[in-house]
Write a structure and sequence with these properties.
Layout lengths: L3 H13 L6 E4 L2 H12 L4 H15 L9 E7 L5 E6 L36 H12 L4 H14 L1 E2 L2 H18 L14 E2 L2 H13 L2 H4 L2 H12 L6 H6 L3 E3 L2 E5 L2 E5 L6 H13 L3 H4 L4 H21 L16 H7 L28 E7 L5 E7 L9 E2 L4 E2 L40 E5 L2 E6 L6 H14 L5 H6 L3 E2 L7 E3 L6 H9 L4 E3 L19 E5 L5 E5 L6 E4 L2
Parallel strand pairs: 16-17
Antiparallel strand pairs: 1-9, 1-20, 2-3, 2-10, 3-6, 4-5, 7-8, 8-13, 9-10, 11-12, 13-14, 14-18, 15-16, 18-19
The structure holds 6-diazenyl-5-OXO-L-norleucine.
6-diazenyl-5-OXO-L-norleucine binds next to loops.
Length: 563
């Protein structure tokens, strides 16, 4: 009988709902399972979001977090869509040249490693804000699975063993030999984080204030300041997440909803899709020379605009829809030729007039039985963030400050350049590429998608949308398919292994494209070592409401659909 209770409950939930099969896809099986459990208990997609976020903070410390930030894009069963920005902010004492030495040179590592790299975290504020607006279950119920998970431990996977080993020396340098992560963990070990379980328990009982004020806030500030940072308790106390209008645009009859500034994701996705809309890309074919050319040239122009125009919209008047205007995008593509690559030195940002005031990461996608859809990308920035581990609290702090432009012309960890719009300023949000996205077809959810991958996030989401709607792949095929990326500078096309054959490679080279096949083994100027592009976790809902998932095999990603 005991086994029947969950079955009966799921049946009841589905029969009371609008008939979607609830689904969760995330970077870890434990997190996806917890999300499904919450929905079995009657929670909605927003409840599941809170629980999944926390479970990733426990089991996926490389990017899952309470010491970082991110963005949520949602679409409710009532047809309402929106987004919440819980991006980190620069501390109140931050200033423009803080990463430069007395000769004006960028101090190597200062914006990536140690306390000076840390932005004021937004995740806890974000999940409480979401819960207070949309949650239906008590917050304690959403925290409890992760409190247990942190206390009882999770099993280290092979990929985790390698990632932890890779950063072990940094952990020892920043946190000392006795720190929880300054040990050699092997695949199959159970990693328990008692301090994190205590932290989560405190926050569950006392709310978001328990993180932003009081002893946890003090722990954070102490760790940051001891490792060279400038964050104060006031910075934490003043942190706020922001509801923002998402970017909305149409592509061949689909409605795309994505994140707006301070993420560049939605605007660039709009530019890219609009730039290719006039071409029959289905006919050109997936990863054909022609489709790669077309997409790369669109990417080159869009990333040049990103670099010049984009930053925190709360600090200056920045163009948004002006950059996605049909005429503007068409004009930008006028210099595109099938014969030969446009070199990036010939491409700069386009000219727009601001006509109106615009009002290792991980991604998870969720849909509940009523069709509430949630797309969340969250991060500590690079793997394990600043490596600063709040020992008494059991969590890593981000190194999101590296997403600012430390100096014009100086690339960040993802090779991205920035201008005045993204210079460091006190309390400002650093420009992001995170692109949590929902696609609607006939006003109903059709695709919930996003990925980590720094600058490659936007081009990965772009490719998933085309793989589904143009190249007619299933959700899992769309995620598995090899990806490529171009970002204006450096002027190279990076392509995953198996992405193109040698014939296509030489045709592209003959047209002046500098093609680099992954893996890249060592960090180079503006390009870090990598073996793949992104880890997409996505959900597709077909016209009959059938839900299918794509969990990226590039990671330990996992999804479930509740039948
Ligand atoms: O906000 C951004 O664009 C970056 N901080 C994202 C970092 C990221 O995706 C790292 N994952 N591979």
């Amino acid at each position: 009988m005991k086994n029947f209770i969950p079955i009966i409950l799921s049946f009841l939930i589905l029969s009371c709902s609008k008939g979607y099969n609830p689904a969760v896809v995330s970077a870890r099986k434990e997190a996806s399972d917890i999300g499904i459990e919450i929905m079995k208990k009657g929670g909605n997609a927003f409840d599941a979001m809170v629980a999944v976020h926390l479970a990733l903070a426990v089991t996926y410390p490389i990017a899952g977090n309470i010491g970082g930030g991110g963005f949520v894009v949602y679409h409710t069963s009532n047809g309402e869509s929106g987004s919440l920005d819980f991006r980190e902010k620069a501390p109140g004492n931050a200033f423009k040249n803080m990463y430069l030495d007395e000769n004006g040179g960028v101090i190597e590592g200062m914006s990536t490693l140690g306390g000076a790299a840390v932005g004021v975290p937004g995740s806890i504020a974000g999940i409480f804000e979401i819960h207070s607006k949309f949650g239906s279950l008590p917050i304690q119920d959403l925290f409890q699975p992760s409190i247990n998970l942190a206390k009882n431990g999770f099993v280290v996977t092979e990929k985790q063993e390698n990632a932890l080993k890779d950063k072990l020396q940094d952990f020892i340098n920043v946190n000392g030999k006795e720190s929880l992560f300054s040990k050699n963990y092997k695949q199959g070990d159970t990693l328990k984080n008692l301090q994190l379980s205590i932290t989560l328990d405190k926050i569950a009982k006392n709310g978001s204030k328990a993180f932003y004020e009081g002893d946890i806030a003090k722990m954070i500030v102490d760790e940051v300041q001891e490792s060279g940072g400038i964050m104060t308790v006031e910075d934490l106390k003043n942190y706020n997440s922001v509801w923002r209008d998402p970017i909305k645009f149409e592509y061949k009859g689909l409605e795309v909803i994505s994140m707006s500034l301070p993420s560049s994701g939605g605007i660039l996705l709009g530019q890219l899709l609009k730039a290719i809309e006039g071409y029959d890309i289905e006919k050109l074919g997936h990863n054909s020379v022609e489709s790669i050319q077309l997409m790369v040239e669109a990417e080159r122009r869009a990333y040049a605009d990103r670099s010049f125009y984009m930053g925190d919209p709360d600090f200056s008047k920045l163009p948004v829809y002006e950059l996605m205007d049909d005429e503007y995008v068409k004009k930008r593509m006028e210099s595109f030729s099938w014969e030969k690559a446009t070199t990036s030195s010939e491409v700069s940002h386009g000219e727009v007039k601001v006509t109106e005031e615009s009002d290792q990461t991980t991604h998870y996608s969720i849909i509940d039985g009523n069709g509430n859809s949630v797309s969340v990308t969250t991060t500590l920035n690079t793997n394990y963030g600043s490596k600063v581990f709040v020992e008494k609290g059991g969590f890593f702090l981000n190194n999101e400050m590296d997403d600012f432009s430390s100096k014009p012309g100086h690339p960040n960890s993802f090779g991205l350049l920035g201008s005045e719009a993204n210079s460091v300023e006190a309390n400002k949000r650093m420009l992001s590429s995170m692109t949590p996205t929902i696609v609607l077809k006939d006003n109903k959810p059709s695709l919930i998608v996003g990925t980590p991958g720094g600058s490659t996030i936007i081009t990965s989401v772009f490719q998933i949308i085309l793989n589904i709607y143009e190249f007619n792949m299933s959700m899992q095929e769309a995620v598995n398919a090899p990806r490529f990326h171009h970002q204006w500078l450096p002027d190279v096309v990076i392509i995953e292994e198996g992405g193109i054959d040698s014939v296509k490679d030489s045709i592209l080279r003959s047209k002046n494209y500098l093609v680099i096949s992954l893996p890249i083994k060592v960090d180079g100027p503006g390009m870090s070592a990598r073996s793949s592009i992104g880890k997409v976790d996505a959900i597709f809902i077909d016209e009959n409401g059938k839900v299918s998932i794509g969990a990226d095999p590039r990671g330990d990603d996992h999804g479930s659909v509740l039948k």
